[in-house]
Specification:
Number of strands: 3
Order of helices and strands: HEEEHHHH
Helix content: 40-55%
Number of helices: 5
Strand content: 5-15%
Structural class: mainly alpha
InterPro entries: EpmC
Strand order of the largest sheet: 1-3-2
Pfam families: EpmC
Number of domains: 2
Length: about 180
């Protein structure tokens, strides 16, 4: 998906900086390869949320993971998670999708808040065949719950509202409403 000047990752980097650099000493960084989270190694050095290949969608996705991670997780490289690579079997894929529902729901929220198209990511091109529609429905249901119950994590709500303001978008309604 090509980026327009309106949906350029540098805009997200600036919005993230305004929202979180002072209170959390954390910055969003365009990476060259795989995304990851790097806690600071030295006092005063910023923590880094690194997204893949300068992709706008990757920046939204990695921000969603950061917005969910608790304080203890934010002290660990990549939040202390071990990533099961492409080529997952059915059980591994189900586990992946379970863990990814909430971050992808937040990514969808962020996408709506800046007028950017959203597609779920199943991340398993060389593994078991994935029911993308079923996973998309689960992510939509998760987003609907977050919006209807007003249970969006505080950092995610702050970022989403900043996106709405910066991109001149209205606060979104739940999917399928």
């Amino acid at each position: 998906m090509s980026q327009t000047s309106e949906h350029h990752y540098e805009r997200l980097i600036e919005i993230f900086k305004r929202c979180f650099s002072e209170d959390y000493n954390t910055i969003l960084v365009a990476g060259d390869d795989e995304p990851y989270y790097q806690p600071s190694a030295e006092e005063g050095e910023p923590h880094k949320v690194v997204f893949a290949h300068g992709f706008f969608a990757s920046a939204l996705h990695e921000t969603a993971h950061w917005c969910i991670a608790g304080e203890a997780r934010r002290k660990l490289f990549d939040y202390g998670y071990w990533y099961e690579p492409d080529g997952r079997n059915e059980a591994q894929q189900k586990s992946f999708e379970q863990v990814e529902q909430k971050p992808q729901a937040l990514e969808w929220l962020f996408s709506l808040c800046c007028g950017f198209p959203f597609q779920v990511s199943v991340d398993n091109l060389n593994g078991v065949e994935v029911d993308r529609q079923a996973f998309s429905s689960k992510v939509a249901a998760q987003l609907s719950r977050l919006l209807e119950e007003n249970t969006i994590p505080p950092r995610a709500a702050k970022f989403a509202k900043a996106l709405c303001d910066d991109f001149n978008c209205s606060w979104p309604n739940p999917p399928n409403s």
